[in-house]
Amino acid sequence: MSPSTEFERALHVAGYSCIAGIDEAGRGCWAGPVVAAAVVLTPAVVAAPSLLAGVDDSKQLSRIARETQAAQISASAGASAVGVVPAFMIDAYGILPATRLAMLIALLSLPCAPDALLIDAVTLPGVRVTQQALIRGDSRSLSIAAASILAKVHRDRLMRQADQLYPGYGFGRHKGYGTDAHQRALTALGPCPIHRRTFQPLLRYTRVRIENQAPENRETEAS
Asked: What architecture is the 6-189 domain classified under in CATH?
């Protein structure tokens, strides 16, 4: 079943006028940023979701379909924005706080101030706006599905750029996910600057580096 505007319509009936759907891409990757997008649908699209026919959970679409739909969403949505949090901040704060930060950046980058949020699976603590966390929201809410596509397309573009900066890892193919090819590249090359050092299997490279240091260097780090 395709995502609908059932939740958006219910919020409109309840008196909310600017409803943002929010989703992320790249949460489970070994490398690269986590990217979130926020999308506000126009009242016309909420009333007639067929105006965005073909928009679905980004995981259900091919690359060509996602990029086609992303262009359609950007042209037809009332507003949209993305937020990007890099790997070193994911390592510093953890993936869930980093995901929420990316969502907050996307939300604050919108040209309008939403008065209600539809979010895939999580909430944003401290944001004093009505929120609904929808499990599998990208397959249920059209605005969340649209956000999932924008986040995925934006992140994939960043990872194709990373493939040029750090050749040999295959980022343009696997986009930082934990594939066999990615594991083989890690074994051959070790991690690069956009790898998430707190994720498995990257943790073992950190342990090996520390264990291989001379004793005096380990003492200096500890002091």
From this structure: 2-Layer Sandwich (3.30)
Sheet with 130-134, side-by-side order of all strands: 79-85, 34-40, 19-25, 116-120, 130-134
Domains of the chain by residue range:
6-189
Identify which of 38, 36, 7, 46 has the alpha carbon closest to the alpha carbon of residue 21: 38
Q: Helix 63-76 and helix 142-165: axis angle, to 10°?
A: 120
Average pLDDT of the chain to the nearest whole number: 92
74-89 pLDDT tens trace:
999 999 999 999 999 9
End-to-end CA distance of the chain: 59
pTM for this model (two decimals) = 0.91
Q: Output the CA torsion sign for 28, 32, 38, 39.
A: negative
Q: What is the distance between the alpha carbons of residues 162 and 35, in angstroms, rounded to a whole number?
A: 14
Place of tokens 């690069």: 192
Contact in structure between 170 and 182 (CB atoms under 8 Å): yes
Tokens 């706080």: give the residue.
Answer: 97
Q: How far apart are CA 188 and CA 220, in angstroms?
A: 29
